[in-house]
Design goal:
12 strands, 6-stranded mixed β-sheet, alpha+beta
Length: about 250
């Protein structure tokens, strides 16, 4: 069931829990070949999120008909928006988007390593207050071609998180292009808590999980519930969501 789009003034995220959503939007183009951002917005609105990480976002490209997708989705949903460009593309930019309620410190994009011949990658980063405590969210999209490249990007991302967030509560979400049993994770799984578990790709009949929401330190977060959106047309990925509570 899809809920109507929010058009009211921006609320402040609730202090008891937050809902975060990660969604690879395939530059807005659905499985029917149609670029339909209002359709994408309805899918996101049905998750009732406080924070949304978007992957495969176009900004002013010819492919996307000159539309600034993160900005337009934010306006449709009544959310603030930022675009983290990974690379110039087709007359505009291509990268990650981030949507959020309330206020926060918008930073980035953070650049991730990419060898010659591979697409540059980035991460959007956002600092916010939850119950009087500083928290961080990082939204990213790792390489889809090379396992060593993904491992290098993940290591760089964790180094940046350590540098920026230190021991503060942090969330990482995105299309990481790795299955849960991939050796490219290294020791990531021992330091982070994975929330959503289940297939996310392809959207029509998901068989493989490559989209994730992680939190750390594991002992600071309660995962109240998680779910994978049932939407086969709007994108080639299913959206994923987690309701999280920060322990005192």
């Amino acid at each position: 069931m899809l809920f109507p789009l929010a058009v009211a003034a921006l609320p402040t995220p609730v202090e008891s829990s937050i809902t975060v959503v990660s969604y690879n939007i395939h530059h807005g183009r659905g499985m029917d070949g149609v670029i339909d951002l209002p359709r994408i917005a309805k899918v996101i609105a049905s998750q009732n999120p406080d924070f949304v990480g978007l992957q495969e976002v176009d900004s002013g490209t010819n492919r996307a008909e000159g539309r600034f997708e993160a900005k337009e989705l934010g306006e449709l949903l009544g959310l603030n928006s930022v675009f983290a460009e990974a690379m110039p593309y087709d007359g505009g930019g291509y990268g990650e988007g981030f949507l959020f309620k309330g206020e926060g410190s918008k930073m980035g994009p953070l650049r991730l390593p990419a060898r010659n011949g591979f697409e540059p990658r980035s991460a959007a980063v956002h600092k916010f207050e939850l119950g009087g405590e500083t928290c961080w969210i990082f939204a990213t999209h790792l390489d889809h071609q090379d396992s060593q490249m993904r491992a290098d990007q993940l290591a760089k991302l964790e180094s940046l998180i350590n540098e920026l967030a230190g021991d503060s509560p942090a969330i990482v979400m995105g299309d990481l292009n790795m299955r849960p049993d991939s050796p490219s994770w290294g020791t990531w799984w021992s330091r982070w808590k994975s929330t959503v578990i289940g297939p996310t790709m392809p959207s029509k009949e998901p068989r493989s999980q490559i989209d994730y929401i992680f939190v750390r330190p594991p002992e600071r977060w309660d995962v109240l519930r998680t779910w994978i959106g049932d939407e086969p047309i709007a994108s080639d990925h299913a959206p994923i969501a987690a309701e999280l509570k920060l322990k005192r």
